Amino acid sequence: MSNDFRVNVEELISNPSNRVPVVLCLDASGSMFGDPIRELNNGIELFINSVKEDHIAAASVELCIITFSDNAQVVEDFCGLGSVSHTQVMSTGGMTNLGAGVNLALDRLQQRKALYQKTGVEYYQPWLVLMTDGVPTTSEHIAAAEETCRLESTKKLVVFPIGIGSGADMSVLSMFSKKRPPLKLKGLNFRQFFDWLSKSVSRVSQSMPGEHIKIDTSGIAAWGDIQ
Amino acid sequence: MILHTYKKWRVSGASVIGTSHTKSKTVCQDAWAAYRTQTVLSVCVCDGAGSAMFSDEGATLVSKFLTQLFADKFKFAFYRPKKFVRLAFSIAKNKLRKIAAGRSLREFACTVVLAAIHADGRWLTLHLGDGGIIARFDENKFRVISPPLKGEFANETVFITSFGASRCVNINRSGIRAKNLTGLALFSDGLERILYNHQTYEVALAVENMMTWQDKADEQRISGAIKQNITEVFRQKTDDDCSLIITTRKIL
Question: What is the count of structural domains for chain B?
Fold first, then answer.
């Protein structure tokens, strides 16, 4: 090509990649102590490493980790996977304030979306992964569940409610999503779950406008049961 | 009729398949078209929806049909744009239904990025969905005059087959005595992220550069150069199908 009609790659603009915000809202109450929390942490590590292997997803997925017990706290605020520093969730003991966890997750998501809008960064529907092994000990979750359902019905949020072990109250988890029934983790198959999650989120990060993303339901059998 | 301004408008363009579509063995779903009458030049880029099976056919039909219609009926389009777009989309959808032959109209979904320029200096742009239009005014004033029309999320947009599409368009019109438009770049969403800054709306140097090419060679050669640049340079930064039309007139 003649140099007269050649564009240099430096003459193009580099806008940031489209983002996929993912919040993990995790139960860290006393009952998660021991094997459950250890397997959960292994699963989170695996999720981060699997997504990193896909270069488009690695540049797109932003992760926020929130835990809840007596109160909710942000373990890792939204950041790219290369910058995640706290992947280890600790069981802090205490009760299961599920509602506080979900409310904090929704607040953080709202703030992140505002930042994207302010800085001209495009983004996909946020994902909220909610995992608990117990029964909520406050009533805060009722209003929080109404809010997640409202966001879900207006296509502003994708919610995955997951129960861990036989103690998880699946009827409470079902309140958080009208579209997707809560799934029960088979044993402590966190690794299989996070492997599935990383593949699903990679598909979203590579979708084109107008493309309807179907969640890979066939892969769920490896880690979960529909109740 | 003053034709001297119109005669100087020249058009080049190209549609190139994205690497993601090459990998998945799908076809290029973008199409572009240009049409001239004695007094009007009309150009259009259409991007077929990724999830629609025959959107390449939709994009080809819609781009050809709308360029011809806007050139032939420029006066109506310029003075009654909303009514005109409603009618134009309705006829386009009927044409799509004919080639669909019973298949769902949704499978032919595509976006529309169109411009029509009259010999007397008036111009009109029509934009539905993603992609966009950058204009050059006078010698070197570049402006994004029609940014992508999207929903809140990156994979949401509107297509000609969407319900109420004609109400979702962005229409720009010049003044009646406008003379200062000297160039337009119409592009599909594959090039959105590299041709202008989404926060500041600063236009890429590449666009400024490409708008000087028409003065140096014929339209066909420039179309070849656009195609080659998309293939060799632009695709380093995007894996989607890419379409670009550059139309400019000599700056007097």
Answer: 1
